[in-house]
Design a protein that fits this description.
This protein is an alpha+beta fold. The chain is about 40% helix and about 20% strand.
């Protein structure tokens, strides 16, 4: 074996290329040379060293380096230190949910140099591990180990690709949510509980068309904001989410979500927990009409319309202050009073009273329509089929001249003009498709799907959409089952009242403080009026006092009178405000302090204590909102189109899924339970790019993991992420 040097002259430069060559004799006896290895371009010193080494090998002698080998300088350098272990844990969690395969299916790569699913993964990991970074995603990405872990050239992770991917993600939002639900069920089985709530997010600037200027839930005034409706399960995994206009009321947002999920089969018998926003009578009627097993809390002003059996009489004589110094003592008094009133103690802050099943009459939104002899009766049908039948009745009435126009029809039917148009637009479907929907050939067809079909021009596309629906929706209800409720009807409801001593003391204390502030304000106003040189208009004074009382939400509790009084010392008249407390209104205001009346489906299979605990578990969805706001940094938003805002919310929900998965695994360990604390602990373990003058190619080495980091990896069953051999196998060298 010997070293062969090939010399090439290019321009004015001379290049030497080295090859290891072995001599051999061919089959025909002619000597030849076989190239063992091509070593590329070498310096003169490297060529000389190789020749000396080959000579020593042929002579079986040992080479001795001159000088002290321990002092040899190899010039090894760390040329990059990349964020690694926190991202690797998040990426492994992403992979365990099999999300790469999901996005490859619903977002095929086509001619893209980078798979959209990889871009989405990087954006979600950015939300998880470094959401507060002032760097935009495309500037953050090259400073991490994601190019190595995902095999993406950082130059291909640009702003244009990111925005194109966000638009694609918005288009498949519904498919993504359906797929996630199926993954949850395949892993954990049927859902035990569902929680629904609404939050908001505000924008830096005007925001998209959905953004509307209003006060945020955090108290910021005059911000452009959107609403976000979230439905999650008992583990906090997001099942459904929707972006809604900023000024839309919470109960309407949740009713819209109810319209979308009431007929899906994966809810089963899982109770749906909603907060007080769904506690008004109209919203409770909608929950009853959905057929789901629901649980909500009614508003305090509507408690008397359900029951008068809440044992509040003994609490009327208590007048707690609610200060820090008196809080514990007043809570003890309230707890003793609760036991004396017959409430069952569950824990120190929960006393329950089972009020059993009661009856309440509600007005249901859909009016009763008289069957006019048409082929199909809308009141025996359900979903979109009932609206096709109703539209046919409307069209027949207009043809016969029973109504002059749609406006008169809407007025007589107790509907809006837009609602009548929405119903009659279903007649745009071909007659054959209408008959098949009415006959139940496509199973239960929701009204929203029918409206979507009516917007499509081609019958083939309409039929394909309906057939796809038939595979995932339940069949129509069998004959004899009750149709959707109409008009005023009396229904059965399960009632449970619970009492919280701390809430009682704090609510009574706040009301007492508000009353004192109003009285103090009026006293100061009277002093100003007495000293004033001008007599003010009585009407303006009443308006000023009314606005101050309204500020503390006690308008109904006070009567205000403005009179003219003569100053005995100065002999001049001045205005005087007399504030009178209405005792009956004040008693109604403080009556149910500390009490919550829960209203639920009559078939909820729980006792009173379990129902109260179930409702108090609604902080699951509240914690989800807290996570996406404070940890994932949902807001402020910087996008300016509706599609990208919806995609941004989807990224935050996927980041929430990863956070909740990690927290669920760490819940029973002695380690930090929050995903944010876990990522903070892992952040110091980085991936270092090491280069050397003598190395043929650069190498990667991770910072040695600490004991705390190894403990986290062990609990997550991801110890291989810190193993040097596994790191070497998983790393793809950066392309640029």
């Amino acid at each position: 074996m010997h070293l062969r040097i090939s010399t090439k002259r290019i321009g004015g430069n001379v290049y030497n290329y080295a090859q290891l060559v072995e001599s051999y004799r061919r089959d025909d006896g002619v000597p030849g040379h076989k190239v063992i290895a091509s070593l590329g371009q070498l310096s003169d010193r490297e060529i000389a060293n190789l020749r000396v080494a080959l000579q020593a090998s042929r002579q079986d002698t040992t080479l001795v380096l001159p000088g002290d080998p321990s002092r040899a300088e190899w010039q090894a350098r760390i040329t990059a230190s990349l964020a690694y272990l926190d991202l690797a844990v998040a990426l492994e969690t992403w992979n365990r949910w099999k999300l790469p395969g999901l996005f490859n299916r619903i977002l095929p790569q086509k001619n893209e140099a980078v798979a959209p699913g990889d871009v989405i993964a990087a954006l979600v990991l950015h939300r998880c591990t470094d959401p507060g970074s002032k760097l935009y995603a495309q500037r953050w990405f090259p400073r991490t180990a994601l190019p190595e872990l995902l095999g993406i050239d950082p130059k291909q992770f640009g702003n244009t690709r990111i925005h194109r991917t966000l638009e694609a993600l918005d288009r498949v939002g519904d498919a993504l949510q359906d797929e996630l639900v199926q993954r949850y069920r395949s892993k954990d089985g049927l859902f035990a509980t569902l929680f629904m709530d609404v939050t908001d997010a505000w924008f830096a600037g005007r925001g998209p068309d959905l953004a509307q200027r209003d006060r945020t839930k955090e108290g910021f005034s005059n911000r452009h904001k959107i609403g976000i409706v979230l439905l999650c399960n008992e583990h906090g995994y997001p099942l459904r989410w929707r972006v809604v206009p900023g000024k839309r009321r919470d109960q309407l947002c949740m009713q819209d979500m109810l319209d979308q999920v009431e007929d899906v089969d994966w809810i089963g018998d899982a109770p749906l927990i909603c907060d007080r926003a769904m506690g008004q009578a109209k919203s409770v009627a909608r929950l009853v009409d959905s057929g789901l097993r629901f649980l909500t809390a009614t508003t305090r002003s509507e408690i008397d319309s359900y029951t008068d059996a809440i044992p509040d009489r003994l609490f009327r004589e208590l007048n707690p202050v609610g200060s820090e110094a008196t809080l514990q003592g007043e809570m003890a008094v309230a707890a003793t009073t609760a036991e004396a009133a017959g409430l069952q103690k569950v824990d120190d802050l929960l006393y329950v009273c089972d009020l059993g099943v009661c009856e309440r009459t509600f007005s249901f939104e859909r009016p009763q329509h008289q069957f006019s002899g048409a082929t199909w009766d809308p009141d025996t049908l359900e979903g979109g089929a009932s609206f096709i039948a109703l539209a046919r009745i409307f069209a027949d009435s207009l043809r016969k001249g029973e109504y002059r126009n749609k406006s008169e029809l809407a007025e007589k039917q107790g509907m809006t003009r837009a609602r009548v148009t929405q119903i009659m637009n279903t007649l745009k479907l071909p007659t054959l498709l209408q008959e098949q929907i009415l006959a139940g050939d496509f199973g239960y067809v929701p009204e929203r799907l029918l409206r979507q079909c009516a917007q499509i021009d081609r019958e083939a596309e309409q039929r394909a959409l309906l057939e796809a629906n038939a595979h995932v929706m339940r069949p129509v209800r069998a004959a004899g089952k009750p149709p959707r409720r109409v008009g005023r009807q009396t229904v059965a409801l399960r009632l449970v009242a619970y009492f919280n001593p701390r809430m009682f003391v704090e609510q009574r204390g706040r009301l007492r403080c508000r009353r004192q502030r109003i009285e103090h304000y009026v006293a100061e106003l009277n002093e100003r009026l007495r000293r004033s040189d001008h007599i003010r208009d009585p009407h303006s004074i009443r308006v000023e006092v009314h606005n101050e009382i309204a500020r503390w939400k006690l308008v109904s509790a006070f009567n205000v009178q403005v009179s003219t009084v003569k100053d005995k010392d100065k002999g001049k008249p001045y205005r005087h405000v007399r504030l009178t407390l209405d005792p009956d209104a004040w008693a109604r205001r403080v009556r149910y302090a500390g009490f919550v009346l829960l209203v639920g489906h009559p078939e909820l299979p729980y006792n009173a204590a379990e129902i109260a605990r179930l409702y108090r578990q609604k902080d699951t969805v509240e914690k989800d909102f807290q996570t996406i706001k404070s940890v994932v940094k949902l807001r402020p938003m910087f996008h300016h189109t509706d599609a990208k805002v919806r995609a941004h919310v989807s990224l935050c929900m996927l980041a929430l899924l990863l956070d909740r998965t990690i927290e669920r695994r760490l819940r029973h360990s002695k380690l930090p339970h929050s995903a944010a604390a876990c990522f903070e602990q892992l952040r110091s373990c980085r991936l270092n790019l090491i280069t050397s003058d003598h190395a043929i190619e650069p190498t990667y080495a991770a910072t040695e993991a600490t004991q705390d980091q190894l403990a986290i990896l062990q609990n997550l069953r991801m110890k291989g992420l810190a193993d040097p051999e596994e790191i070497a196998e998983s790393i793809k060298f950066r392309r640029s």
